């Protein structure tokens, strides 16, 4: 249990760190990419406004004075535009009428000739998008009547810088995540140590107390047998005998659960599940007649399983006993054992006076009882289903409790 707690702590911590790093680095890189495309679109808009050329001159001053240039600047200059931008930028444009090329301007770029520019323009035209990327070129489409002019801006340097930052951020995040993983694994031992020590003391107390209680219980039982041989028998002695058996059973269950948490001592062998359950099911027929309850069972033949036969017998007995205890007179109890694919499914159904769906998640908790007064009448201790769950989990199976109408309970085991 402590190992599971530690692994769960490590998993939750690592998932939290990974999610946080992913959100931070993802947000930073998304904003960075958005900035790259925004800057490119701003420069393309200058080309659109100025007939495919960058104006030469000085950037407007803070008061918004006209742009001092030689070729007439149209529109405000963006933040990323300065006097060096016309000389640093590589761009070209193509004007189309339909699919036919009218003009091509590749004077400001050496990496693209007129044929490549035409190819890019036709590809972009067919995509039916106003702007986007084709290779490392950001484009923007401007329509004027029948003419369609496509402006391209070379974003190789900015995209390379973006991809370099992306790679570095991923590597740094990965290294940071691995370091945090190492620290969390080391810290997990220290964090769970107090819980582990407390839990070990608790288990040891339960085991020691259980063994200590066995001796006086055995003496009380022996004394009762002596009194019975001497012919002394009354309602008080019968009540002592009943409560002694109940306490003895509870002690054995607590010791069993304590040992189960320390180590799985089951003897796993292949045996006939059908025959085992059949024998247990038949033993409850007389109880059903005595308590005036409708009891049926259907067991698919020739089912085998790898497990501890004695513990499976205990499991079926616990579930059927629980069903009988909490069903009313003339109530219905049903046991079904069938094959479900490669797995075996065991279902125990019983009608009951009332059971709320909100109580179902707590049924397998130790000493949990929906109705304490009802449990005292039936001799329930609230630990039987905890033992059943421990047996199922030791066989790598699952056990669930469901109710359709809050007037019945279905226990389903899949092994």
Characterization of this structure:
The chain starts with a helix and ends with a strand. A hairpin with a 2-residue loop joins strand 6 (137-144) and strand 7. The protein folds into three domains: 2-160, no CATH class; 187-262, Helix Hairpins; 269-414, Histidine kinase-like ATPase, C-terminal domain (Heat Shock Protein 90, 2-Layer Sandwich), CATH 3.30.565. It is elongated and about 120 Å long. The longest helix has 74 residues, at 156-229. It has 415 residues and is an alpha+beta fold. Strands 4-3-7-6-5 form a five-stranded antiparallel sheet, sandwiched between helices. A five-stranded mixed sheet has the order 9-11-12-14-13. It is built from ten helices and 14 strands.
List keywords for this structure.
53% helix; five-stranded mixed sheet; five-stranded antiparallel sheet; Heat Shock Protein 90; 415 residues; single chain; Helix Hairpins; alpha+beta
The arrangement of helices and strands along the chain is: HEEHEEHEEEHHEHHEEHEEHHEE
Radius of gyration: 40 Å
Residues in helix, %? 40-55%
Mean pLDDT: 83
Assembly level: single chain
What would you say about this model in short?
By secondary structure, the protein is an alpha+beta fold. The protein contains ten helices and 14 strands. The strands form four sheets. It has a five-stranded antiparallel sheet, sandwiched between helices. A five-stranded mixed sheet has the order 9-11-12-14-13. The chain has a two-stranded antiparallel ribbon with strand order 1-2.
């Amino acid at each position: 249990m402590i190992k599971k707690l530690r692994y769960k702590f490590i998993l939750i911590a690592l998932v939290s760190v990974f999610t946080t790093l992913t959100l931070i680095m993802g947000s930073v890189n998304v904003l960075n990419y958005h900035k790259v495309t925004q800057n490119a679109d701003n420069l393309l808009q200058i080309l659109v406004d100025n007939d495919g050329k960058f104006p030469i001159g000085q950037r407007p001053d803070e008061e918004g004075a006209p742009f001092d240039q030689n070729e007439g600047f149209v529109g405000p200059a963006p933040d990323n535009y300065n006097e060096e931008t016309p000389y640093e930028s590589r761009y070209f444009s193509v004007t189309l009428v339909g699919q036919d090329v009218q003009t091509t301007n590749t004077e400001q770029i050496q990496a693209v000739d007129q044929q490549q520019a035409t190819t890019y323009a036709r590809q972009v035209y067919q995509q039916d998008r106003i702007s986007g990327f084709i290779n490392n070129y950001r484009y923007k489409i401007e329509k004027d009547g029948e003419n369609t002019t496509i402006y391209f801006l070379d974003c190789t340097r900015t995209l390379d810088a973006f991809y370099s930052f992306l790679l570095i951020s991923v590597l740094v995040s990965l290294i940071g995540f691995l370091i945090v993983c190492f620290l969390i694994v080391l810290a997990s031992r220290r964090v769970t140590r107090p819980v582990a020590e407390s839990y070990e003391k608790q288990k040891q107390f339960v085991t020691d107390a259980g063994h200590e209680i066995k001796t006086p219980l055995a003496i009380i039982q022996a004394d009762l047998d002596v009194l019975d041989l001497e012919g002394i028998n009354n309602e008080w002695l019968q009540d002592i005998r009943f409560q002694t058996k109940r306490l003895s059973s509870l002690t054995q269950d607590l010791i069993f659960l304590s040992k189960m948490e320390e180590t799985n001592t089951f003897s796993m062998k292949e045996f006939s599940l059908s025959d085992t359950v059949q024998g247990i099911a038949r033993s409850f027929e007389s109880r059903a007649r005595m308590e005036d309850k409708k009891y049926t069972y259907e067991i698919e033949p020739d089912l085998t399983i790898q497990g501890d036969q004695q513990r499976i017998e205990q499991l079926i007995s616990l579930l059927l006993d629980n069903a009988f205890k909490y069903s009313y007179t003339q109530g219905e109890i049903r046991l079904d054992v069938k094959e479900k694919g490669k797995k075996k499914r065991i279902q125990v159904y019983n009608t009951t006076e009332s059971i709320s769906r909100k109580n179902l998640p707590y049924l397998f908790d130790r000493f949990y009882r929906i109705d304490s007064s009802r449990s005292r009448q039936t001799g329930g201790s609230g630990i039987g289903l905890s033992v059943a769950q421990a047996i199922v989990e030791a066989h790598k199976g699952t056990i669930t409790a469901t109710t359709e109408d809050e007037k019945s309970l279905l226990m389903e085991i899949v092994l």
